Amino acid sequence: MPLALPRLSSAVPRTVVPGDMAAANAPVSRFLIDAQVFDEADLPDAWGDSLQACQQALAACIRREIGPLHCLNPGFGLNAVDTQGYAISRHRFANGKPETYREVEIYWYETGEQEWPIGLGLQALESALPDLGRAVLQVLREQCARVYPLFTPDVACEVASMLYWYGEENEEIALDMYCGKDEQERQAMRSQMLTRAMLDEAYPEWARGWMKERSRRCRLHHAAQTITDPRLRQIVADAQALSQLQCDDSFRPDAEGEYIGFGAVLSWEEGDVTTRIHDDLIQMAYQGEFCDRMGELRIPLDDPGALGAWFHAMWPRLKAIGLIDRLIHQLTM
Asked: How far is CA 6 from the centre of its chain?
């Protein structure tokens, strides 16, 4: 007769937090619960670390507000902040005693950045109505910069200039520095590097330029009145809804180093130069300081109303994340 392996009840926590650390965590956990941002049902059935349980509950509440997602996978983190202003781990001690906390730090980021080719979708919009694809892309660029940064073709062009061409519009200065006037060396180097011609070939000119707000608004309005294709009409409706949300950059991360907190890579065609530029940027950033957060804030433990105020301010951003995800998904179908 086979022996049954022993199993721990699901109610038994997987980690055990020392009593004094649990006592230090308790005021922060109580602060988060008293703010009534998340429901009791959002808390896990069992936990060892109350701060981690609150983080899971906060993330669950936010995901519920955003709704189902197809392309994006935002994560929300929670740190305690000590009396010196440093965000610390939940199990850190100073001189043998648990740290005293004065604030909580909330931050958000993308947990699984992926590539999404949107060129065919945007071209379909352009074919239906000139400048419509450009208008939808413009809405994504405008709102994502403040809410959920994306690595779009215009960003790829800016990064290419910085990474390969010393901030210039093309590779000629870089070739001058490394090869001088030797045309054979210049051609050899050009064949191995990303060039202006490669960028021009990868994206249509309208995908790299900037569209005036009034022109963008008028084009979307006209499209809403004239487009009959149900799929394209839905894209237009979502773009209009996204453009009307009032989102600012008040939660922009205060960090030094290269910014790499992109929610997705929006290439034109799968595997085109966009992914190469993005990967080179990530590799360069990892060699020094970098920032991979989309937003953050710190809330004093003596101001419970501030957490509810933050959640209220986040509502249009959460709505925007859902619309951004839906637009990306529709453009890649």
From this structure: 42
